[in-house]
From TrEMBL:
The chain crosses the membrane at residues 109-131, 143-161, 241-263, 275-296, 381-401, 407-428, 449-469, 481-500. This is Uncharacterized protein. The keyword Transmembrane helix applies. It comes from the Eukaryota. Residues 1-20 are annotated as: Disordered. It comes from Symbiodinium natans. Keywords: Membrane, Transmembrane, Transmembrane helix.
Length: 501
């Protein structure tokens, strides 16, 4: 239950830095008087007590309102004057969304769509593939159409799904059309954080350098002690996962075309078959993974920078704010502005004892979270499984084709599920690990291109090695299904070792 604490509404004060709390464009606040020590002390007391000025200031909005129009609230600059009407008063907040307005909006939109609607989109796409198999088979159409149906339905679901979770998002939950309401909304942010069940931190390289982003994290660390309640999602995960999904979708289509057009009904020797599929995969892999490698290496360098910054974090040195950048002179009225940096520094002293103690907590807790979450596994297992879902779709097509002739191939089903849940996650994990080793930015652009192509080529070689091992299993066991199943079992053991140790 939100606690109002009987706190009066704050006075209209001059230090209004809304960076990260309502839009990337600063909304001019008309200041009626210069800040005084009394008004600043009153603000510090209010923010540090995590008290609401009014119960109505604890507001939420459905997540789909933030994502509506492909994230128009995130990318639209100064949002509609009526955006505030899409938020409503609440007694608690399911999830507080914190982010930096100085980061790229489209990466942020992509990761928010995946976090909120990714699972639903994959489920809808998989269901669409299953439903489409029978009518397409009766029409004599290729299973490629089922893969296309899955892509279209999952894409549509990702963009139009309406997640109903109630979240705090600054652009909608802090008034943009009324200066007084905007100030009141900003000073209630600490209370909103306190009354949130969890926090979704959309991280990019600018996050820990922005004052209000750090304030929100500080308030959460002070009021919440469950590490699982803080969910950090790098914004680069969004576009990376989407491109990976499209890459594997293209690969499944390529494998189906290779099997029907090139292979056909000809009896191929296992090792020759492995080389044919390796070559077909290399074409698709080299085209897409070179781009992914470039993007991912940049992401890893940003993570290194964040880990370095957090391991030696200093609030005084590392955190900047808008009011300091403009010399504490209001751009509209020309009057002096209170320094938000000094105001928040006093709040940190009340919360943690001193700014130096807060620095220690950031170094210990946040740096540890980054090291644990992002250095061991470049991309979480369930994100990789989601990105490789098209391999499940092609498995469904293969099993359906076998069932259509009156057999149920258990070994084929096992092998195809292993491709999805074990083989591709391991290969992709190793490729991303290799990208981590080669993440350093090269001096010349052509060197960057060579490194990215080399990483894509290494991934193609890894898949070729997997196919050759499978061919060896087929030759040794004398049966394609038994050989594929035995190889898949081996990779399942490797996957358990990679992800659980």
């Amino acid at each position: 239950m939100a606690q109002t604490g009987g706190a009066p509404a704050p006075e209209r004060i001059g230090g209004a830095d809304f960076d990260g709390l309502g839009g990337e464009e600063k909304v001019p606040i008309i200041v009626t008087k210069a800040p005084t020590k009394r008004s600043t002390a009153k603000l510090v007391q209010h923010v540090s007590n995590f008290a609401l000025t009014r119960a109505e200031m604890l507001r939420v909005t459905p997540a789909h309102r933030v994502l509506w129009g492909v994230g128009s609230a995130v990318r639209g600059g100064a949002y509609s004057q009526d955006a505030y009407i899409y938020s409503t008063p609440a007694t608690h907040i399911s999830q507080f969304w914190t982010h930096s307005w100085h980061g790229g909006p489209y990466c942020k939109i992509a990761v928010l769509h995946l976090v909120c609607s990714g699972l639903a989109a994959l489920a809808c796409g998989t269901l669409a593939v299953a439903v489409s198999l029978v009518p397409l088979d009766r029409m004599g159409a290729s299973t490629l159409w089922s893969l296309l149906v899955g892509l279209l339905v999952s894409s549509l679901a990702l963009l139009t799904w309406r997640p109903s979770v109630k979240v705090f998002f600054d652009k909608l939950c802090i008034a943009q059309h009324d200066a007084k309401l905007q100030v009141e909304g900003v000073v209630n942010v600490g209370a909103c954080v306190k009354n949130s069940e969890s926090m979704l931190l959309c991280w990019d390289s600018t996050f820990f350098g922005r004052l209000w982003c750090v304030v929100e994290v500080a308030a959460f660390l002070k009021t919440h002690h469950d590490p699982a309640a803080l969910r950090i999602r790098p914004t680069t995960w969004g576009p990376t996962s989407i491109v990976l999904f499209l890459t594997f979708w293209a690969w499944t289509g390529m494998s189906q075309i290779t099997g029907s057009v090139i292979i056909g009904d000809i009896e191929w020797e296992p090792f020759s078959l492995a080389l044919v599929f390796s070559a077909a995969n290399a074409v698709n892999h080299m085209l897409s993974m070179s781009f992914i490698a470039h993007f991912w290496r940049s992401h890893l360098r940003d993570l290194d920078m964040a880990c370095t910054q957090l391991s030696d974090f200093s609030f005084k040195r590392d955190v900047s704010c808008h009011c300091c950048a403009i010399g504490h002179i209001h751009p509209v009225t020309g009057r002096p502005m209170a320094c938000d940096h000094e105001t928040i520094r006093e709040c940190l002293c009340i919360w943690f004892g001193s700014v130096e103690e807060f620095d220690v907590i950031m170094r210990d807790r946040m740096a540890g979270v980054f090291q644990k979450s992002f250095c061991r596994h470049p991309l979480p297992y369930h994100w990789i499984v989601g990105a490789t879902t098209p391999t499940l779709w092609v498995a469904m097509c293969n099993v359906f084709q076998s069932m259509a002739v009156g057999t149920f191939p258990f070994l084929l089903l096992f092998a195809n599920l292993a491709y999805w849940l074990a083989v591709f996650p391991v290969l992709l994990h190793l490729e991303l690990k290799l990208a981590h080793l080669l993440r350093r930015r090269r001096r010349f652009f052509w060197q960057e291109i060579v490194v990215n192509i080399a990483l894509a080529f290494a991934g193609s070689i890894g898949f070729a090695i997997y196919l050759i091992i499978e061919a060896a299993g087929i030759v040794m066991l004398g049966d394609p299904m038994k050989g594929a199943a035995a190889t898949s079992l081996l990779w399942a053991v490797v996957a358990v070792y990679v992800w659980c140790t």
